[in-house]
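Hi everyone, sorry if this is the wrong subforum. Our group has a chain we'd like a structural model of before ordering constructs, and none of us has done structure prediction before. Sequence below.
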Amino acid sequence: MLTADGREMDLATKVGQLFVVGFDGTEPTDDLRTLITDRQCGNVVYFSRNIETPAQVATLTDRLRGLVLEETGVPPFVMADQEGGVVARLGWGTTLPSQMCLGASADPDLARAGGEAVAAELAALGINVNLAPVLDVNNNPRNPVIGVRSFGEGPDLVGDLGTELAMGMQSNGVVACGKHFPGHGDTSTDSHHELPVVEHDRERLEAVEFAPFRRAIDAGIDAIMTTHVSFPAITDSPSTPATVSPAVQRRLLRDELGFDGLVVTDGMEMRAIAETVGTPEGCVRALEAGCDLLLVCHTPETQADAIDAVIDAVESGRLDEATIDAAVERVLRFKRRRLSASSPPSAGRWAETADRSREVGRAIAARGITLVRDRNDTLPLTTERPLHLVGSSGGRTSPAEDDDFEPTLLADSLGAAGFDVTCHEIADRLELPSFDAGTQVIATVDGAMANDSWAAVIRTLDDRRRRFVAVVVRNPYDLSVVPDVSTAVSTYDYTRATRTALGAVLRGEATATGRLPVTVPEFAD
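Answer:
Right subforum, don't worry. Here is the predicted structure as tokens:
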């Protein structure tokens, strides 16, 4: 097996092609250099910790590409989770709205345009794999990790929009990676913290969880990411995470669904793996199960141990080198397909893509923002009178997310829309200011399902019969704890595009045409 420059690959180089490692900081670290030079590691993944500016990312990617090429003879996959909404490693003003906002629009053309736009940005900076779209069907209101990252609760909607998003990415030369197979949407726990279990039978899994992945595979998606979730109906044992299950990865994904693309693991340091089978052993078992690329994203010692564990497994005869060769062949095939025509990273080229991303983002937000209810004809609000914004800073619901919500984000955007905004950041209803009759008040709803105090704030404000609007800035399931609220708008995220769209809806300059793509318990007109 030869590298791109004609070198023969030894075992270490082949194993290095199967690892994707993360690192701290905005330039290559000594630990990363060691992984590349001593263990031939061939791929990297970016998180927010690696991202500052377009120019910095372009320079970083160019340096890493040079390092990896020099040591291995093969260009690297450079990956990022640029899903949009609350999961966007490149957190600039071009970030697209969340997938659930797209789901609320139900517009396949917008999904395709979104994929094209985000891929153009990523490709300009040398990022050639987007760990998106999310193909999980979110039908569990208590899901702590998927939520607005999903298009919604309908398998057809998720499959159609996810496929269009993926095909848009691939049309601009970026590998799309659908996740999290065979489905993380109906869990009430987060695999970052523990091993979730989905108890559904095979018939139900076929109808719901598998359906979007089947649709994307039939359309030609390049890569699928596994999930660290147990599915007793299809895994080898009730305690086996799907990532390390041959029954799931080899027999189901490869043989039954006919997928011949890249199988990428979710992060192997997540507790659902690290605290069950262990990260190094999990990497060996993932390759045995049929995976191609192993994400070990955080700890240099663990990264080195995992690479060594795979080499040891081959040398001891436990892991057939033919399995390694088959995985490497797939990796090289997709590197030739997607990387051969790529141009050097350039902040200038990125700038040329930015306007298109903003345009598409605005279109998605305008179509997706949803007026869930307006019983008292509260909208539109007027810019001729003050507007009071009651908010509370919201924490991330999962380590997968990037940002915490700050009410000042909304206040700034509403101010730009022409409102005279006074922002009140409070913790509970006892801190509520006294508003006169007829005062215009909006309140942000974020994390209310897990925060009884904030649900009480919303109910108290609504009971005062002011000109009140509840704005759900993230998860629409929060409406289930304030089911009688008179006026509610759902934005599905707090990107710049959705905040701008909200201002237009509140002023009456635009009509909210989106529809909730999930069913909110206890909430109905």
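For your construct planning: Residues 369-507 form a domain with the Rossmann fold fold (CATH 3.40.50.1700). The radius of gyration is 23 Å.
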